[in-house]
């Protein structure tokens, strides 16, 4: 029995070892894609640094790095700094023609790569340049004028947002090279997911641009409306010397000069309201604005420097109804028919549309394969970029002849990565919604408790005014208040909170007013104190003070008022057993001296 178990164990170990060996020798997706591609680059390890070289030109002050991106299982090529120029390129193993049409099976060109904006995108390019194969080119010598054959990829800056497709095409007649831009480029994605951009150019000059596997643009590159300027030049050009004659009339219809507007045609859209009557109390002769009587010219006002001072204008308080000339208000005209226009008639001078003459195009050419013959072979891949952002991530850069290889990379490399990002984003949104719902429940619970308190308080308050309540007799007088409390029970809470504060404010104001009145009541009355006698009744000094005040008032109106400025002489009979009480120093002036009784 023991020998049998040992045999099973040995067999299991053998099968496990064979399975491990089979897995070790089975090709991965990356290996399969690489083996069937003209160019393929991932950035999982440092191997890329031996293939991709930074430009030595002083313009390129930025350096790419590799970094493991969130939700990614591997690394990508990253733009780490903002506001930098970046120049990085890698040579292909051999030059690659844009398309192959002469072989038994025509072969397209497929370019595909992934882009992720980790920190968002404001202004910057994230496109690829497929550099033209030239014998003397080295990646260290990359500059912005290095020739390229095809430029493809997203570019976003402000209102400009497009997926570029540019072909640099050579005219076989004159040898000039022109950039042919896609006339209606698609709009790139701008969110922070990883997106896949794919370009396919077929030997029959058809093209396709896909984003995340979905078609965004397609058509024929030979169509004159696809590229600007067109891939093939026109056979004829407008003659620049042919000008439209000055007397050429190309207007087919003109307004009838003999037409007359009908007498009953009313083209007044707004008319005066004839039924309107001047309001009672309208003041025609009063100005709407008057000078503010409280406005005073500042003491520092200098008319030489500041100009003539004008008082502030305020609304005339007399103009409660209205001031100034009264005019009737305007209203819509019920008989309005619109603006009258004369009818159109055929133009007797019409000669038809003018067509400019054409001449043969000296640069015209006609070839069967303009892309293969006019677009240079591809010798390198470059990222020659400027951006004000950071965090652009590139990965899985692919050039192949087989669309199935690009499809494999889409399904096996990009799709799992994209799905993971979407799943993580949805999880964050769900968590955010969950927290929001919890907060709403807590808020509702708090509000529910407050509502219970408000309802109980309002019921208790309203019960005071019911038939058997303490304040039942006052209910008819506070009906509107009770209705308001029934509809707004929370207002009672506010009233309870603000009531004591308002009461305290009123008390403080009343105390302040009482203090000022008390101070004014106790102000020293020097005249009364001066005439109060040392002994005797109070009637005498009061009478003397009153007489003294009347005497003070008389000189102001009497002809001999100036005599009142001097001291008054008291008769001897009145001054018996008394003396003259002079006015204190601080109250000297045109006041009388009074006699103080002994």
Instruction: State the major sheet.
Output: 9 strands, antiparallel
Radius of gyration: 50 Å
Provide the helix percentage.
Answer: 25-40%
Average residue pLDDT: 81
Structural class by helix and strand composition: alpha+beta
Membrane topology: Single-pass membrane protein
Keywords: Chaperone, Coiled coil, Disulfide bond, Endoplasmic reticulum, Membrane, Signal, Transmembrane, Transmembrane helix
Protein name: Calnexin
GO biological process, one term: protein folding
Explain the overall architecture.
With 598 residues, the chain is α+β, with helices and mostly antiparallel strands. Helix content is 28%, strand content 24%. The protein is built from nine helices and 27 strands. Strands 2, 5, 7, 8, 9, 10, 11, 15 and 24 form a nine-stranded antiparallel sheet that branches. Strands 1, 3, 4, 6, 12, 13, 14 and 25 form an eight-stranded antiparallel sheet that branches. A hairpin with a 2-residue loop joins strand 9 and strand 10 (160-170). Helix 5 (403-463) crosses helix 7 (489-521) and helix 6 packs across helix 7 (489-521). The termini are far apart.
Question: How do the strands and helices of this protein lay out in sequence?
Answer:
Blueprint: H1 2-25, H2 29-35, E1 39-41, E2 52-54, E3 65-68, E4 75-78, E5 84-96, E6 109-117, E7 123-125, E8 128-132, E9 148-157, E10 160-170, E11 177-182, E12 194-201, E13 206-211, E14 214-220, E15 227-228, E16 236-238, E17 253-255, E18 270-272, E19 289-291, H3 303-306, E20 313-315, E21 330-332, E22 344-346, E23 358-360, H4 370-374, E24 378-387, E25 392-400, H5 403-463, H6 479-487, H7 489-521, H8 526-531, H9 539-557, E26 579-581, E27 594-596
Antiparallel strand pairs: 1-25, 2-5, 3-4, 4-25, 5-24, 6-12, 6-25, 7-9, 8-9, 8-24, 9-10, 10-11, 11-15, 12-13, 13-14, 16-23, 17-22, 18-21, 19-20, 26-27
């Amino acid at each position: 029995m023991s020998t049998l178990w040992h045999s099973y164990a040995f067999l299991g170990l053998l099968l496990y070892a064979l399975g491990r060996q089979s897995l070790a020798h089975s090709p991965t997706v990356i290996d399969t894609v690489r083996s069937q591609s003209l160019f393929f680059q991932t950035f999982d390890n440092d191997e890329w640094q031996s293939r991709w070289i930074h430009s030595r030109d002083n313009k390129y002050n930025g350096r790419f790095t590799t970094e493991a991106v969130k939700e990614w299982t591997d690394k990508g090529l990253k733009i780490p700094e903002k506001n930098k120029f970046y120049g990085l390129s890698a040579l292909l193993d051999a030059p690659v023609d844009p398309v192959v049409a002469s072989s038994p099976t025509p072969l397209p060109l497929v370019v595909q790569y992934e882009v992720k904006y980790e920190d968002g995108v404001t202004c910057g390019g994230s496109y690829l340049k497929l550099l033209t194969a030239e014998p003397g080119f080295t990646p260290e010598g990359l500059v912005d004028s290095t020739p390229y054959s095809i430029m493809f990829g997203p570019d976003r800056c402000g209102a400009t947002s497009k997926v570029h497709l540019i072909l640099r095409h050579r005219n076989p007649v004159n040898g000039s090279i022109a950039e042919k831009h896609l006339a209606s480029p698609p709009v790139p994605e701008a969110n922070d997911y990883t997106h896949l951009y794919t370009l396919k150019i077929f030997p029959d000059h058809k093209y396709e641009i896909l984003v995340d596997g979905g078609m965004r643009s397609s058509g024929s590159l030979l169509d004159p409306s696809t590229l600007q300027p067109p891939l093939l030049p026109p056979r004829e050009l407008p003659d620049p010397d042919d000008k439209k004659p000055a007397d050429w009339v190309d207007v087919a219809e003109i307004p009838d000069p003999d037409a007359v507007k009908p007498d009953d045609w009313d083209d007044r859209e707004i008319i005066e309201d004839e039924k309107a009557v001047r309001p009672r109390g309208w003041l025609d002769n009063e100005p709407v604005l008057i000078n503010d009587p409280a406005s005073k010219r500042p003491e520092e006002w200098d008319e030489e420097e500041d100009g003539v001072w004008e008082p502030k204008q305020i609304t005339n308080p007399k103009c409660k109804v209205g001031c100034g000339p009264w005019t009737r208000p305007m209203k819509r005209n019920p008989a309005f028919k619109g603006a009258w226009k004369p009818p159109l008639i055929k133009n007797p001078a019409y000669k038809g549309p003018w067509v400019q003459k054409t001449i043969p195009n000296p640069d015209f050419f006609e070839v069967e394969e303009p892309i293969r013959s006019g677009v240079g072979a591809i010798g390198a891949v470059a990222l020659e970029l400027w951006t004000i952002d950071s965090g652009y991530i590139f990965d899985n850069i692919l050039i192949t002849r087989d669309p199935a290889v690009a499809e494999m990379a889409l399904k096996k490399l990009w799709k799992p990565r994209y799905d993971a990002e979407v799943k993580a984003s949805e999880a964050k949104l769900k968590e955010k919604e969950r927290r929001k719902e919890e907060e709403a429940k807590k808020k509702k619970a708090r509000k529910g408790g407050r509502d219970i308190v408000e309802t109980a308080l309002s019921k208790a308050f309203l019960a005071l005014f019911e038939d058997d309540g303490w304040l039942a007799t006052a209910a008819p007088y506070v009906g509107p208040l009770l209705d308001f409390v029934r509809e707004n029970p929370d207002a009672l809470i506010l009233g309870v909170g603000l009531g004591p504060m308002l009461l305290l404010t009123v008390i403080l104001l009343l105390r302040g007013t009482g203090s000022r009145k008390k101070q004014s009541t106790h102000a020293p009355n020097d005249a009364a104190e001066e005439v109060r006698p040392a002994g005797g009744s109070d009637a005498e000094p009061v009478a003397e003070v009153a007489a003294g005040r009347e005497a003070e008032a008389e000189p102001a109106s009497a002809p001999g008022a100036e005599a009142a400025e001097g001291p008054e002489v008291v008769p001897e009979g009145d001054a018996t057993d008394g003396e003259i009480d002079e006015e204190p120093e601080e109250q000297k002036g045109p006041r009388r001296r009074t006699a103080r009784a002994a």
